[in-house]
Specification:
single chain, 140 residues, mainly alpha
Length: 140
């Protein structure tokens, strides 16, 4: 999976630029700009999507809130009896974290390292971008 992502994000861009225009390797509108854009997207998109699916899922957030309210959490304690009854399995499923997909994470890291090895001679800025991307990805 990482190899195909690397081919798609790395090799095809270099081949397309070399076939279309060999002389346009400038920082403003050529291969270097596309490399920088690819690496910035490599930092932003996977990390934001992972954060949203793990922590900001609206359905899961709402379910946690309603369960806390029904069970009489300290902050939202009311004098009324809980109206909803939840099974322990439902509560466990709601509060469990999303399972970690090790294959996808390993693929992301490998793709980032391969892109960095390919693009670092063109644009040295990709090295700190890839380091930041991998650090953020493992913090989420």
């Amino acid at each position: 999976m990482a190899f195909y992502q690397f081919i798609n994000a790395g090799v095809l861009v270099v081949l397309a630029n070399s076939i279309l225009d060999l002389k346009n390797i400038s920082l403003t509108n050529g291969l270097a700009a596309e490399i920088t854009q690819i690496m910035l997207m490599n930092v932003i998109v996977p990390n934001v999507s992972l954060f949203v699916t793990n922590y900001m899922a609206p359905g899961k957030w709402w379910a946690k809130r309603s369960i806390r309210k029904a069970l009489g959490d300290e902050k939202e304690k009311s004098k009324e009896e809980p109206k909803d009854i939840y099974l322990q399995e439902e509560v466990n499923e709601t509060f469990e974290e999303v399972p970690i997909d090790l294959a996808a994470r390993y693929s992301f890291v490998l793709k980032t390292l391969l892109l960095t090895a390919l693009y670092a001679p063109f644009v040295p800025l990709v090295v700190p971008l890839s380091i930041c991307s991998i650090l953020i990805y493992y913090q989420i």
